[in-house]
């Protein structure tokens, strides 16, 4: 482990990405990976993650917005970049200047982008987004409402190079009969669109459909690309969700803070805002320098969440504060100011996982990771 940072920090093992990508490749053998590095790679560093992915042969990246795409370009990443979301018209010029691929969020949007491209005498690279059931972006192509003509039109717009097509799964993480039926229907609708395009003599371009759970539960699909985000971070959304396959991922992120103070309190004394913890016996309390403004969910307060000090499990007591929180270290010998508290990761023989935080905070790992705030340094470690 690196020398302790002054307050709270994460350590990120970007080398473990290689292992996680190998695990993904075992599942989707003939499908290339589009590395989703949106939201600063789920908070873990978009440029660092993209560079680690490049070393694994990943040559396509997905981001949510133009600023995220430019961030990769400014860091010297020259590969294909697809913007999964919406780019406002004031930023259209970046698309051709920086050779970025734009998702077509609707037919109206495609026409607007085409008009811009025509006016400026440029061609803009695009992927057609088909809404087979997410009802978020894309041209609707669902059992109840099939807009195939709009899809044809996108491919025929003169100043757009539509070189790929994709859709998105809302319930690929769920193995109930209803969910699998829904997902299989989506796959069927997606394939139907591809066949119809071909029947019109239109080349659909590269096809991609699977997000992380799409890879875990539908590894047999053989499109040109898949779009994992979470998986190369070495976690799933929730480790209690059953999956069909049995991959072995290494979580790349651990999180630490320092002990700032240790003191004994006596029966009847209370800890933190709201006085929700009241000592029943003499209790040794350590204050540590991390709080909800660092991204540790305030919902962990008073629920018995445990962190590690000297490799021993210690409960959070009282409400989490913005920049600090308190733990019961009665059973831990020789705790002192400056000691490192492990909030996520291994210490001694014990481990705390992001899943444990997410479950107690009633959320998914995606949110827990993206909530780690910008004031928490991301330190690069070798495993
Ligand atoms: C975020 C996102 C992904 C990646 O999702 P994971 O579940 O993290 O793999 C893939 N495709 C689209 C369209 C997304 O928005």
From TrEMBL:
Keywords from the named record: Isomerase, Pyridoxal phosphate
Residues reported to bind substrate: 136, 322
GO term, biological process aspect, one: D-alanine biosynthetic process
A GO molecular function held by the record: pyridoxal phosphate binding
Key word GTP-binding present: no
InterPro entries listed in its UniProt record: Ala_racemase (IPR000821), Ala_racemase/Decarboxylase_C (IPR009006), Ala_racemase_C (IPR011079), Ala_racemase_N (IPR001608), Ala_racemase_pyridoxalP-BS (IPR020622), PLP-binding_barrel (IPR029066)
Catalytic reaction equation(s): L-alanine = D-alanine
Pathway(s) served: Amino-acid biosynthesis; D-alanine biosynthesis; D-alanine from L-alanine: step 1/1
The organism's place on the tree of life at top rank: Bacteria
Pfam families: Ala_racemase_C, Ala_racemase_N
Cofactor: pyridoxal 5'-phosphate
Annotated GO CC locations: cytosol
SMART domains from the UniProt entry: Ala_racemase_C
Protein family (similarity comment): Belongs to the alanine racemase family.
NCBIfam families: alr
Protein name: Alanine racemase
